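TICKET: design request
STATUS: open
ATTACHED STRUCTURE:
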């Protein structure tokens, strides 16, 4: 974990369509909710909220201060203006420090440009960029790193099994599109993170798909992944 991320939130009186005035004034409406907690309507300046979103993402706990109340929250949802790109609403899910939570954590490839494969003119492409882990909020890693330095030949792969987890952090044992009780389902540790390809093979694959094929979708198919479901609708309290 890096430095603690903090955010001071003010209680919000305006709700519904009236929050448009807040946005015009550079204020972002938000909500804090969680088990055993009455939802709290809050707000904060646009620049402050945006910095927290950049720093925390959806995988780092944020230490929230709401008046005299203290909470630890995970960013659950961010609603942005599709045209201007401005943050319109943020949902924080309050969690307890002593309870395990599940969070999506980035996977970071290290040693890019240094592998024998790349030096030989091959291409290393990342197939998945995040994965679910289970940990106490304060133990959640900012990212899971895996080195590609030892990749040498086309066809070689890195899998989830190549990741060394920090202490007190575990993977969520499920693979999208398969029932847990299915003995034929692929093991999570076999899920491909990155693969080595011949440049000519990539070009041929793109040509065959009229330029629409991408390695991400090709490797996702190898992993048995399905299309990502649509994001849940915003809370009615916005």
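STATUS: resolved
RESOLUTION: sequence designed for all positions
ATTACHED SEQUENCE:
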């Amino acid at each position: 974990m890096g430095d603690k991320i903090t955010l001071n939130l003010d209680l919000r009186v305006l709700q519904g369509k009236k929050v448009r005035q807040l946005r015009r004034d550079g204020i972002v409406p938000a909500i804090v909710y969680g088990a055993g907690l009455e939802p709290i309507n809050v707000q904060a300046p646009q620049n402050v909220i945006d910095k927290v979103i950049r720093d925390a993402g959806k995988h780092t706990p944020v230490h929230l201060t709401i008046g005299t109340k203290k909470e630890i929250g995970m960013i659950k949802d961010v609603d942005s203006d599709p045209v201007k790109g401005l943050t319109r609403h943020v949902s924080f899910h309050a969690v307890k420090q002593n309870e395990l939570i599940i969070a999506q954590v980035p996977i970071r490839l290290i040693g890019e440009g240094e592998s024998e494969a790349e030096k030989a003119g091959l291409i290393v492409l990342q197939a998945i960029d995040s994965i679910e882990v289970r940990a106490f909020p304060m133990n959640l890693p900012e990212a899971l790193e895996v080195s590609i330095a030892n990749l040498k030949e086309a066809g070689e792969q890195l899998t989830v099994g190549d990741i060394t987890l920090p202490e007190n952090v575990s993977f969520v044992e499920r693979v999208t599109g398969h029932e847990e009780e299915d003995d034929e389902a692929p093991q999570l540790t076999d899920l491909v993170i990155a693969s080595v390809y011949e440049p000519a093979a990539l070009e041929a694959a793109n040509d065959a798909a009229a330029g629409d094929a991408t390695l991400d979708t090709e490797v996702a198919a190898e992993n048995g992944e399905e299309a990502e479901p649509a994001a849940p609708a915003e809370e009615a309290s916005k």
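CLOSING REMARK: The chain has two domains: 5-95, 101-222. Residues 61 and 74 are 5 Å apart (CA to CA).
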